[in-house]
């Protein structure tokens, strides 16, 4: 991993997980000391994160990008369109073995009430849905990936229960297993709408 990638990974993870809060000032000097790299890779990492919408440059100051209701609305509208589009193509070909595996992993994470593990399974599951090998689709998905990851962690800190999230995921898995696109799409849209509402509610408390 290059120095720039190291700095990028460190800062991005801190933002995504909420350790660096919206509108928090990011000091280059502090970051170089924390990461153990020079200022150049930190600057390069910050510019990349700016392109992804995770940091803003305000004059000579760098801050964590605010997360507004409009940002969340746009992210979830686009995410819903992309995931339901992909689902139509993948619903018939996601192997039952993989569906059974993610179902077990969801249940294990929920039983242990381990949000970190649960989010990893969540990323894996939605990756199965969106795995359609289309270049332009992948580019669109990448545009919202950072904001999607950010809201995943916000959802984990919201009042929304893991049990409710688990039930929604199990419903989606069940409909996919039955190869019923119409019902799987409804279950997916319902799940994404509930997450969207939970994130908006959390933002109101910030």
From TrEMBL:
Residues 1-67 form the HTH gntR-type domain. PROSITE patterns: HTH_GNTR. GO terms for molecular function: DNA binding; DNA-binding transcription factor activity. It comes from the Bacteria. The keyword Transcription regulation applies. InterPro entries: GntR_C, TF_FadR/GntR_C, Tscrpt_reg_HTH_GntR, WH-like_DNA-bd_sf, WH_DNA-bd_sf. Gene3D superfamilies: GntR ligand-binding domain-like, Winged helix-like DNA-binding domain superfamily/Winged helix DNA-binding domain. Keywords: DNA-binding, Transcription, Transcription regulation. It holds the Pfam family GntR. PANTHER family: GLUCONATE OPERON TRANSCRIPTIONAL REPRESSOR, TRANSCRIPTIONAL REGULATOR, GNTR FAMILY. This is Transcriptional regulator. It comes from Lactobacillus gigeriorum DSM 23908 = CRBIP 24.85. The lineage of its organism: Bacteria, Bacillati, Bacillota, Bacilli, Lactobacillales.
């Amino acid at each position: 991993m290059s120095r720039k990638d190291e700095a990028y990974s460190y800062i991005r993870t801190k933002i995504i997980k909420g350790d660096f809060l919206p509108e928090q000032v990011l000091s280059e000097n502090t970051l170089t000391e924390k990461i153990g790299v020079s200022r150049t890779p930190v600057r390069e990492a910050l510019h990349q994160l700016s392109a992804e919408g995770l940091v803003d440059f305000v004059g000579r100051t760098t801050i964590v990008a605010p997360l507004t209701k409009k940002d969340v609305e746009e992210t979830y509208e686009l995410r819903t369109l992309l995931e339901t589009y992909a689902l139509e193509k993948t619903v018939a070909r996601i192997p039952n073995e993989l569906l059974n595996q993610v179902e077990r992993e969801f249940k294990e994470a929920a039983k242990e009430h381990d949000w970190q593990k649960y989010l990893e399974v969540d990323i894996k599951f939605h990756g199965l849905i969106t795995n359609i090998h289309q270049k332009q689709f992948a580019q669109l998905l990448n545009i919202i990936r950072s904001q999607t990851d950010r809201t995943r962690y916000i959802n984990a800190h919201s009042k929304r229960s893991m049990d409710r999230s688990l039930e929604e995921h199990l419903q989606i898995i069940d409909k996919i297993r039955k190869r019923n696109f119409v019902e799987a799409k409804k279950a997916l849209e319902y799940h994404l709408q509930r997450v969207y509402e939970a994130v908006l509610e959390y933002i109101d408390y910030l």
